[in-house]
Amino acid sequence: MQAVTTKHDRGLYTGRDFDHPFEMLGEPSMRTYAPATADAVLARLLEEPSLARGVVHHEVIPAREAAYADMPATLDPRIVEALHARGIERLYTHRSRR
To answer: Which range of residues forms the domain containing residue 21?
Structure first.
C-alpha cells in the first residue's frame, strides 16, 4: 500500500474514500450517546468502582427559587451591553457579588 493524503488526514490508501480519518483503522468516527438524566449518569458513575471510591458525599438538594440582583455598578458597561443583547437583565445573586 502506498501512503497518500485522504480528504481528512494522511493515511494508507486502501482503495476507498473515508469520511473520517479513523475509519481506516476500523474505529467509529464518533461516539454518540442518548441523553440521560443526572440521576442515571450518577448511578452509572457509582457502578464503576474506580470512580465510586472517589465519591465522598452525595446529596440531593431540593430545588429553590432563583435569587437575582441588579447588575453591579462596577461591571464594565461593555459586559452589561453584551448581557442585555442576550436578554440577561439581572444576574444571579452569587454572580453579582464582587
So the answer is: 1-30
Of the candidates 60, 62, 59, 81, the residue with the CA atom closest to the CA atom of residue 71: 81
Please give the model's pTM, rounded to 2 decimal places: 0.40
Residue with cell 443526572: 38
Is the residue at 84 inside a domain?
yes
Local structure of residue 91 (DSSP, 8 states):
E
Instruction: Quote the pLDDT of residue 88.
Output: 94
Q: For 97, list phi and psi in degrees, rounded to 5.
A: -75, 150
What's the structural domain count of the chain? Answer: 2
Q: Is residue 46 one of the residues assigned to a domain?
A: no
The answer, yes or no, to whether residue 58 has pLDDT greater than 60, is yes
Domain membership flag for residue 47: no
Q: What is the pLDDT of residue 80?
A: 95
Written as one letter, the residue type at 41 is V
